[in-house]
Amino acid sequence: MTDQPSPPRGRPRDPKSHAAVLDAAFTVLEREGYAATTIERIAAQAGVAKQTIYRWWKGKAPLFMEVLARKANQSVQLPDTGSFQGDLTALLTGTFAAVSTTLRPLMRALAVELLQDEEFAGAMRDVFVQRRRANVRALVQQAIGRSELPVDTDVELVCDLVFGIMWYRLMFDHAPLDKCAARQIACAATAAAVQNNV
Amino acid sequence: MTDQPSPPRGRPRDPKSHAAVLDAAFTVLEREGYAATTIERIAAQAGVAKQTIYRWWKGKAPLFMEVLARKANQSVQLPDTGSFQGDLTALLTGTFAAVSTTLRPLMRALAVELLQDEEFAGAMRDVFVQRRRANVRALVQQAIGRSELPVDTDVELVCDLVFGIMWYRLMFDHAPLDKCAARQIACAATAAAVQNNV
Amino acid sequence: MTDQPSPPRGRPRDPKSHAAVLDAAFTVLEREGYAATTIERIAAQAGVAKQTIYRWWKGKAPLFMEVLARKANQSVQLPDTGSFQGDLTALLTGTFAAVSTTLRPLMRALAVELLQDEEFAGAMRDVFVQRRRANVRALVQQAIGRSELPVDTDVELVCDLVFGIMWYRLMFDHAPLDKCAARQIACAATAAAVQNNV
Amino acid sequence: MTDQPSPPRGRPRDPKSHAAVLDAAFTVLEREGYAATTIERIAAQAGVAKQTIYRWWKGKAPLFMEVLARKANQSVQLPDTGSFQGDLTALLTGTFAAVSTTLRPLMRALAVELLQDEEFAGAMRDVFVQRRRANVRALVQQAIGRSELPVDTDVELVCDLVFGIMWYRLMFDHAPLDKCAARQIACAATAAAVQNNV
DNA sequence: TTCTAAGCGAGACGGTACGTCCAGTCTTCGT
DNA sequence: ACGAAGACTGGACGTACCGTCTCGCTTAGAA
């Protein structure tokens, strides 16, 4: 029994408007900051009616979630340098490069939303956070396979360690997220993973 | 020559209003969530005119900063268990207890603000963040004194590791900040600190 | 080439809101007096958002100007009793009847505004004042046509005399604007018009 | 037995403040218009506390009433040119000179108040309006004494005619209040007074 | 072709909160 | 007791967005 999602009747969604809204959202966010990023401004910037935004997104949060998806969809191919620390350094270098430039305003914006809306926090967690954590988990499994890390390594703690620092620096801006940071954090994570006699 | 800050003229600030606003801010935040916490509602709850709030605070951000100061001013006395890991576990246990209960809504609220306002982010960093980091720094110094940790331990990284995870869990709520978490994080931090051959 | 005032786009103005605001303005004015007649109260009384008032009127002054236009739009048909004094008495009797009852609060309200705003005073002068003066001017021309008044009668002075007294009594309330007043003023105006050897 | 109005105790009223307020009121009124003439601005301009104004006056209305009293207190000495029309022309010339220059903003300001407050309207009527009308009444009596006008001349109507036009022109500014106007109005008033066969 | 359904730009609508201003009152210190 | 300073409650201001609701006009597949 196929689940027919009803035959598409009426005028189909205009892909130009769709794209224009996503672009406008990002543009306004970058130019004016999130506090000034209202639906009205996005609509104006996109040359689109407000209703067209509300028709397709419930609010700013899901809209920016899609913007982030657009910008961050390039599937990361996992590195394999031979050592866990090397792999992690490579992964984080790439991640941090994106996160500290293009994605930075987006992630901060989404953080604002998820801090105020439990439901949206759940959605974000299930989509973006898990995706990134999965990469690290994979590296850990790889290292366990190589017997580089103990089988009972606390994977979640390693993930928390890595992404905790990342978000912390994204929020407070007190230290950079550059290549050097990637190396240091990978080192710390490795040490923590190895010595995981909880 | 003492710096006389001008003799106090006019009617002095009413301490009752002052306290009522701080209490009301916290009450409304807890009861209705930060999204619904408007200046108007706080004023109504406090039985105070809006102007009285605007006279003393520039907006919600500085107001809640003072609320947090009130709630978090109890000076933590540093533990001395004999080992760095023990000390850190003790410190974090106390910190997490506060942060995951009373302070939780406050810290999330302030995060919302600092993510949208660079200037306020700076203020928060200089006051609260530094205060908490100072505690950890002190423990690290203690441990270095005991030759438990190398003299060139990367103190800042240790701090980032600890508070990164704390904020990360505060934001996404994907794991608790309980006694067990304190122990695990202390363990990871110790491992990272010892093995700090950057 | 007709002057196309642009095709109407977007949702058209809601005539119900329009009427509700005008009615509410009048109601509140009558019930609470002009000092208490705020835009907010009018909006509340009309069951309308404040913005809907500000969208269509610049402030209380133009709003009440339209209210007055509504109430006073019945075109007066000029009397023709055979004598100037009779005509004027008839005209003033009708005018005073309206002005001392329904229109009274409106005219006082508009006076408040025009006394504080030169620009609005100009608008009022060009619309309402001129309309009323035109009636008297027409009567004077009629009388000149009948050789009842000299050709060089100072029409403007006659208008000033008549409406001067009307406004003066509207302001200070020291004497009525009834049928008797109409007769007396018509008599005085006639005497002044005849004897106009400046 | 002297009527001691209670022995003056405490610090007596500061005449400098008193004068400063009156001056400031007039200054602000002239410089910024009545709409912008708030008690706060007057107090600031006078270098006086708001309370000092509220202690001595109930509001703007009575305050400006006193300002007007200051400016208009020069007792007019009634002219006696031999004819009613001449006398009236002389009186009005002087009155109009003051009313169309210095007193203009004050009278418009007071008109705003009395239009919104019946009680204050009464006060104004009993003081200023009556004072001015008394002058005209005296001229009429003089003329009756000279048998220039009938004994049953409608004095009140003559007053209304004269001051009606004056206020009307003050409000709408459609015609000047100059010497010429005085002459014309005196002429019209005389004609109306003579022909007063009501 | 005509009909029907939905998308779309435009913009009015009822609301809510903003941050400011002023009204009047109250409280403190100094004269 | 008066006066200057200025904090206080209260309430209206005019503006900005929210999210919803008509409008007239496409733009498609179905009849």
UniProtKB/TrEMBL annotation, chains A, B, C, D:
DNA-binding stretch(es), residue numbering of this chain: 38-57
Keyword Nuclease: no
Protein name: TetR/AcrR family transcriptional regulator
Signal sequence, renumbered to the chain: none
InterPro entries on file: Homeodomain-like_sf, HTH-type_TetR-like_transc_reg, HTH_TetR, Tet_transcr_reg_TetR-rel_C_sf, TetR_C
Gene3D superfamilies to which the protein is assigned, alphabetical: Homeodomain-like, Tetracycline Repressor, domain 2
Parts of the chain that traverse the membrane: none
